[in-house]
Every structure is written in C-alpha cells, then in structure tokens.
Amino acid sequence: MEAQAATEDVPMMPPEGAVDEGEAGTNSPSPDADTEMDSAETDKDDTKSDAAKEDKDDVKSDKEDTKETLSVEERLTLAVSCKDAGNDSFKKADNSDARTKYQEGLEHLKDMAQDTHGLSDIKKSLYLNLSMACIRLAKWFEAIEAADGALKIDKENIKARYRRGVARSRFGALEEAKEDLLEVLKKEPNNGDARRELQELKPRLQAAKEEEKKQFGGMFGKAGGKGLYDDREKEMQERREKEAEAKRLRRIEWEAEMRVRKEKGEEEISFEKWDEEKTKEKEKADKEREKEREKKQRESGSSTAKRPAKEKKKKEDKDGKSEDELDEEDLKIINETKKMGYCYFRKELTEEEKAMKARHVPQRLEETAAASGPQGGQEGGEAAGGAASGTVGQSEWNARGTTFEEKDVTSWATEAFKTHVREATASMEGPTGGTLKARITKVKEVTGDASVAVVRGTKRFLFDFHLTLDWEAVISAEGEGGEEKKFKGEVQMPDVASASADPSGFQMEARIKYKGTKPEGEDKTNVDKLLETLKQSVHKCVWEFVEEMKKKYG
After folding, report:
1. Which structural domain range is residue 536 located in?
2. Does the keyword Protease feature in the UniProt annotation (predicted)?
C-alpha cells in the first residue's frame, strides 16, 4: 500500500492551455467546468435545495460515524482508493469529480495521528492532485490552499511550489507568485514550464508597478540619488506601506471568511468582490453615523438656544429688571477699558504708543545688506547672481519663490527632446581607410514627464524620459570598386533623467540592438566604436535640450 500511496498519477504540468481556463486572475470557474458545482448550489428549486442540503448533512454524519468504526489501515486504504478514482476522472477530463474524490480521500485521513506509517505520502499526493484539479477548474484559492497543505508536509516539494505559483498568479497575488516560481527555478534551473510562467507574469507585474507609480509617483530625483522633497516622498512611502498593510489584513479576514463559507457549503467569492462589498458596507455605516451625529447636533442646538431665554426671563421676573440694563457707571468702566485696558478689541493708541510703533517697523534683510555691503564686489555680485534665475517663482503670488511650486511642461519638453535627439550623428576614419558614419534615423518612442519646480527659492528643471531610437551605420568603400556596408539597429535609453544630464561625463545607460545583418570581425569592432561616439552625440543633444529648457522657463 505504501508504494501505491507514494505514486502520483497527475502530472506536475497541466496539458497545454488547461491552466489558463477561465479568466486569469479571477475566482470565476472555467466555462468548460460545467460539473464543478454541487447539486445543492445549482438547483434553483428551494424545496429540492433544502432536501439536498439535508441529504448532504446526513452523508457527512454517516461518514463521521464510519470513520470512528474503521481501523487506521482501513481508512488509509479508502483514501488510496479515492485517490485512484480521482486520477481516473482526471484523465477523462472530469475535473469536478476528480476534485470531489481527492477531497473525500483527505476527509478519510482527517484527525489521524501524524506519525501513522504511510500517512504523509498519501496525504501529500492527495493535496498535490487536488491542487491540479482546482487549477483546471479555475478555483484559484482552493488550489493555493491545497498546495499549502502539500508544502506543510514537504516544504521542498517542487510540484506544490509550482502549482501554488500558477494559482497565485491567476488569483492576482503577483509578488507571491513570483517568489514561488523563482524558488522553483532556483532548485530546477532548466524547468521550462516555470520559466515560461514567470515570463508571462513579468509584464503583469510591470503594469501593476506602473499603475502604482501613476497613483503615488512623481519626480523626486536629483543628482546624488537623494530626493528633492524628502519629506513629501517619505510621507507618500508611509502612506503606501499603511495601505499595503491594511490590504494584507483585509485579505487575511477574507481568507478566514471564505473558509467558513466553504465549511457551510456557501458560495465563495473573489477577494476583489468581497473587498468592494465591505467598502460599500463601511460607507453606508459611515453615512448612518454622520446622519445620527447631525441629528444630535440639531437637537442639542435647539435645546441650547431655548435655555438662555428661559433663564433670562426667570431672572427678570425675580429682580424686576433685565441684566442688559446697565447704569451710567458700568458704561463708563467699559469705555475706559476699551481705551486703555487689556481687552483684545482695543484699537485706539496713545501718541506714545504710535511713536514707539513707528520706530519698530520691520526692515527687509536684503535691503539692509545692500545698504551696508560692498558695492559691485565679486562676492556680493555672485551670491546674488547665482540665485537670480531661481529666486523668481512661477506665479505672481510667489514672486520670491519661497513656496514650493511645480509646473508640468511634459508636452513641450517631449517635442523639444525629439527635435534635439534627432540631430545626433557620429563619424570616424576607418583603421585601414574609408569613413564610418552613423546617424539617428527615427525617434521611435519618448515617454516620461518633465516639470519646472521652485524649491527653497531655486528653480529646478526636472525630466525623466525613456528613449528608443533607430540608428544606421555606414562603412564607406575603401578605394574604387569597394563595397559599401550598412548596418541598422535600435538603441534604448531607459533612464534619461535630469540627474544624469551632466555635460562633464556620459552617465546614461544605453542598450544597443541590431536589426538584420550584424557586423563581424573588424567591422564589428569599428561599428561598436562608432556607436559609442553616437551615444556621446545623443548625450550632447540632451544637454542642448536642457539649455533650451532653462532659457524658456528660467
């Protein structure tokens, strides 16, 4: 029986296309999985549904009674039989029945002593097969739980790790899926299925990061790698971490609720749908609380307004005179207090106070420094000139640039950037004669953003572009009758930013690709040198763009 238990008839990988049944990343079942719903879930008739539920409870009760009367050996044998029956259904593509058989097999092993001989092998095999059947049925959460069960028994199991990675990927837990698939490749570098799944996952991860960048991103970089606005960036990072932690806690709550639903035989829903329902419930509760609070405030305001009138009337009736009636002496005291006293509403000043106030009028520091400092000296002149271009704000209300202000100039900057980069060329003499020339033939793509910001009284010209260019290199003929050689390709510059636009040295990363024929031997050496010169020419064009940006917005 041990040999039979250790045998797993379900392959690690599903047949071509099976894993992708149903909508990727959702909890909806595959359209082909028309047998995965229990009769109690699909029957629309209430009477039949109740009867099916009662029968299900009776069967469950009978199973528990049977489990108590069977020996350990008999329960192990039944579990293996369920596994074999499930494998037969799986081979016939009856994934719903296979899932049911594997679950029944695990039910036979429930509450059995962990040190039972042969238990671990049978249980692991059932969990692995159940995970595969759930992947076929697009029941991603169940597939993850089944793979977790196998990993608790054997944490190094490659099949369980891979299947959990696939299920997590479809479920939408992209980072966790990436971790599982990388772990598989770490142990089996030649695993083509895991490598292919990881490649399909990468663009989805990138799209998720881009979406996050749109929501929270901005241009915070400057030379040296430090943020221009550290406090703002730190605040946004903390907000992202809080939101991620809140989402993690909600996911834990959802998992717990789905387990309860599963035990009760109720319908399970995706995390996204559950989270949306919870958000609506919270908004509704918040509105109810707000209405209740406003109601109490209105009632409280009404009673407060009535109370002084009643008290005043009682006092008038008692004394025979109103508190508002002041005698001549009281009025004199109040007027004197207004003129000379401590009251905050005092506005009249004595002549002495007026003279003192005139002597203490605030003076601008710049004016004082200009009056007492050197006239036209290099030290004073350069100190003012260095900040002159940056002390003017973007708006009239911010003429001195003391308030942070940022203006988006992406539209203009993108067109200007294309114009400058398109002019990049390079040429050099060949080692044995002839001329080598290269030029940019097309600006395929320029994406990113640009802005002009006023920070602490200084203007900053910021941009961050991703650049893709087509280039052409020509090796002219050496002597008469020689053959001219042309090579074409593409250069990608993923990080052309204001921090790297430094004329003193080339700092931008560039990735060169060839299209069509590639140079060989001496030609390759010469073309590589030529393209390096072309990259430097692109860098020069970027700096010319920076100068134009400064002139336009400086």
Report:
1. 400-553
2. no
Same domain for 115 and 238, yes or no, is no
- DSSP helix/strand/coil, 297: helix
In the DSSP assignment, the letter for residue 191 is -
- The total number of structural domains in the chain stands at 3
- Looking at the fold, whether 69 and 170 belong to one and the same domain comes out as yes
Note whether 257 and 113 are same-domain residues. no
Q: How far apart are CA 174 and CA 487, in angstroms?
A: 40
| Per-residue pLDDT tens listing for the chain (554 residues) | 443 444 444 455 544 333 333 333 333 333 333 333 333 333 434 444 454 455 545 545 555 555 567 888 888 899 899 999 999 999 999 999 999 999 999 998 888 888 788 888 999 999 999 999 999 999 999 999 999 999 999 989 999 999 999 999 888 888 899 999 999 999 888 888 889 998 998 888 888 888 777 766 554 444 444 555 566 667 777 887 788 888 878 888 888 888 888 878 888 888 888 888 888 888 888 888 888 888 888 887 665 555 555 555 555 554 444 444 556 666 666 666 655 555 555 556 667 777 777 766 665 555 444 444 444 443 333 333 333 344 445 566 566 556 667 788 899 999 998 899 889 899 888 776 778 889 999 998 888 888 888 776 677 888 888 889 998 988 887 655 567 888 999 988 887 887 655 555 445 678 888 888 888 888 888 888 888 888 888 888 888 888 898 888 87
CB 164 within 8 A of CB 180: yes
Q: Are residues 36 and 120 in the same domain?
A: yes
Q: Tokens 């001195």 identify what position?
A: 400
Quick one: 113 and 244 in the same domain?
no
CA-closest candidate to residue 172, choices 289, 272, 93: 272
The token pair at 161 is 């790790």
Query: 257 and 182 in one domain?
Result: no
